[in-house]
Amino acid sequence: MRLGVLGPAQGDLPALARGAQHLLDEGHAERVIYVAEDDALDRVVVGWAQRLVGADPTEGALFDRAARCTAATPDQIDAFVASERARLRLRVLMSLPSGRRTIEILDGRVALFVFDKAALDEEDIVAASLLVFGKSPEPLIKKVGSRTFFSPGPIGSDGGAALLDDGQGGVRIEVMNASGAVTAREIVGPSAAGPRLRVQGGSHG
């Protein structure tokens, strides 16, 4: 799986949108998680969906949108289908749920995603091998015993976005800045026996 991570937008929705677009188009992320407490990514997704299908992009309005095709040309119908498929693709972009945490399995490891790692209790930490959090002034990859703590950093920092790829015999973490350049890279797992790799000023704890 290629899982994208976005740090807090700090009010910069255009930069957040660019980060999400890069993770989808260049990083080929299968899903993207926004590790923040605000609704910035939801607002970005709604804006994209409205540009694709109109003012009401909800699933409940799909029938009304489809009804416009009753007298449409084949090209117009093709355009309608393409726009609806693009809207459905936006489902891969998700914010933390109302409980403010979510769990993924990467390379057989439990990865816990949360905004503030201080909210984690001992039971949470014991269960997870990879703890991904959003509240950090800069990107951070820190190994503590058998666990790795990771933050992409906020949007606009030397990071802000990251890809977690579990197809490398471990979980490869790549941190990217606003221009899409990789600023830090590390592999968590069996392939991480060598030294950490730092590029372009990536920040490690």
3D structure, described in words:
There is one protein chain. With 205 residues, this protein is α/β, with parallel strands linked by helices. The protein is 27% helix and 28% strand. The chain has five helices and twelve strands. The chain has helices spanning 13-25, 40-53, 62-67, 74-89, 122-127; strands at residues 2-6, 31-34, 93-95, 101-106, 109-114, 130-133, 140-144, 147-151, 161-165, 171-176, 182-188, 197-198. It has a seven-stranded mixed beta sheet. It has a five-stranded mixed beta sheet with strand order 4-5-6-8-7. Strand 7 (140-144) and strand 8 (147-151) form a beta hairpin. The longest helix is centred in the middle third of the chain and has 16 residues, at 74-89. Residues 191-205 have low confidence and may be disordered.
Report the sheet-strand fraction.
25-35%
Task: Please bin the fraction of helical residues.
Answer: 25-40%
**Mean of residue pLDDT values:** 87
What is the string of helix and strand elements? EHEHHHEEEHEEEEEEE
Per DSSP E runs of 2 or more residues, the count of β-strands stands at 12
Query: So how many helices?
Result: 5
Which runs of at least 5 residues are low in confidence (pLDDT < 50)? 191-205
The shape, in one word, is: elongated
| Largest sheet composition | 7 strands, mixed
Whole-Å distance between the termini?
26 Å
Radius of gyration: 19 Å
Largest beta sheet: strand ordering: 3-2-1-9-10-11-12
User: Would you tell me the structural class of the helices and strands?
Assistant: alpha/beta
